[in-house]
Amino acid sequence: TLSNQIQSLRNNLSNTTDERERIQINNEISELTSQRNELKNRLFSQVYEQRFSLRPIQRSLKDKSTVLYLNLFENSLYVTVLTRNSIKTHVDTLTVRDQNGLQKAVEKLTNRQTDLNLLYDIFDNHLNGRIPDATEHLIVVPDGIFYRIPMEILPVSKPSRSHSYGSAKYLVEKYSISYANSLSQIREFSRRSRQTDHEYAFLGFGLGTFQESVLARDRTLPDLPFAEREVRDIAAELTQARPRITFTGETVTEDRLRSLAGKSGILHIASHSEVSNENPLFSVIYMNKSDDEEQNRSDGYVYAYELFEMELLNELVVLSSCESGGGNYLQGSGVLGLSRAVQYAGAKSLMMNLWPVRDETARHITTRFYQHLNSGYAKDEALQKARLHYLNNVNSDPYLWGSFVIYGDVSPYIDTIPRKIQLFNLFAFLTLFAGFTFFWTMHCQKVEWERG
Predict the structure, then answer these.
(1) For the residues of 174-186, what is the DSSP string, one character each?
(2) In this structure, how many other beta carbons lie within 10 angstroms of the beta carbon of residue 102?
(3) Around 208, how many Cα atoms within 13 Å sit in the side-chain half-sphere?
(4) Is 278 buried (19+), middle (13-18) or exposed (0-12) by CB count in 10 A?
(5) Which of the listed residues 3, 19, 37, 300 has the most CB atoms within 10 Å of its CB?
């Protein structure tokens, strides 16, 4: 970065006594400083100019929704807090200690050694006191390393110890949280109408045993005993969505995914995957090869760039990526690339895990998620409730319950209003029928009495 270059030149300046060299270094420092100031001024002007263009986005927000728009620039983090009625931008200087703390927090998560003190520092430095009291739902637009840190796992008060997971209070307990790749995407959520003519309401692929010819980095993929059960359990929970179709075992082929993926309201894939952070479009989901040997395209590897060809017109895509032994942690580029690939392919929302989890954990959380989705909750609320159930009843370590995030439109998939209207109409009909029966019975008794 420019700041690093300037600091390097300053170090060189302090280490040289040659006058001509000092003059040259000073000139270079002046030039780089000028470039840095110009970029900062441009960034500030964009922020203030955006205040007018942000009004359509503000109008699209619900009363109790708040946007956290994060921008990393040089050694500063710009945190813009956006509601229907206000815009506030905070500038946080990131010291070397702050940057090391962010990196270390991520590394600890990667190594399954969640450090609550490091996570609390992130909350305290950048979010504490900035979220309006009336907020119930947060929409986070991350940047850089913040793509790798789900906001839900941040403690909202100082932990007693770095590993006191059970006694800590987390952001997920206060807000339902979703993510977007850009501010403009937030407005798109409110403008896109729901597609209701899908051939299937739910399409699930669960692969627990992998063909020997389908390898991950030249190694055989281990079994996932809970992956097939995951899609079957979900189909059983999602009673308000019909028709539902699931494929498990040998029936989970790349060809079948290609032919059916865009025809469902929800597409759920429980399998192994590997993420390419250097080239996210080459991230891969593992499936079985087709039985038809003439299908040359069906090699059992579904790459992210191939999603564009599938026309994913789904309301929700869920990538329940189970641990493949590589321990891959999604870098910022990987999250951004994968979520954009699914978005550009036409899907309205994507739920995925930022790091590998055990297939049993994935099954538990996703099944609960669909249970609440089936009850009419918004997608972010359904995920919040599923996490809280796991946190309070299974294991409170954020590494286990915090990996899933949801990008895009979070509106409910199950529309409970028509069912409520139907129930009301049924109740009204039964009431009228009971009243009519009562008065008819009384009338008949009166006629018989008068005759008698």
Answers:
(1) T-EEEE-SSHHHH
(2) 22
(3) 15
(4) exposed
(5) 300
CA atoms within 13 A on the CB side of 279: 5
DSSP helix/strand/coil, 216: strand
Alpha-carbon distance 399 to 91, whole Å? 29
Longest dimension (CA), the chain: 130
Residue 361, judged by CB atoms within 10 A of its CB (0-12, 13-18, 19+), counts as: buried
Q: What is the distance between the alpha carbons of residues 65 and 180, in angstroms, rounded to a whole number?
A: 13
Using alpha carbons, list the distances in angstroms from residue 64 to 83, 130, 132. 8, 14, 9
The residues, any chain, with a CB within 8 Å of residue 396's CB and separated by 6 or more, are 165, 166, 168
- Which residue type, as a one-letter code, is found at position 368? R
Pairing of strands 137-141, 349-353: unpaired
Q: Which of 5-14, 26-35, 51-60, 293-302 has the highest mean pLDDT?
A: 51-60
Tokens standing for 60? 């699209």
Q: What is the pLDDT of residue 45?
A: 46
Indicate the burial class of 168 (C-beta count within 10 angstroms; 0-12, 13-18, 19 or more).
Answer: buried
**Predicted local distance difference test score (pLDDT) of residue 189:** 76
Task: Find residue 70's DSSP bridge partners.
Answer: 79
Question: Is the pLDDT confidence value at 269 over 50?
Answer: yes
Of the pLDDT bands very low, low, confident and very high (cuts 50, 70, 90), residue 404 is very high
Question: Does the pLDDT of residue 125 top 50, yes or no?
Answer: yes
| Type of residue found at 55 | R
Strands 244-248 and 316-322, sheet pairing:
unpaired
Residue 256, both tokens? 């079948």
Cα angle 268, 311, 204; round to 5: 15
SS3 251: helix
243 cis-preceded (ω within 30 degrees of 0): yes
Dist. CA 432–CA 178, nearest whole Å:
45
Whole-angstrom Cα distance, residue 240 to residue 262?
20
SS3 134: coil
DSSP state, 272?
E
Q: Per-residue b/e over 30-68, b at no fewer than 16 CB within 10 Å?
A: eebeeebeeeeeeeeeebeebeeebeebbeebeeebbbb
- How far is Cα 183 from Cα 406, in angstroms, rounded to an integer? 16
pTM of the model: 0.78
pLDDT for position 420: 44
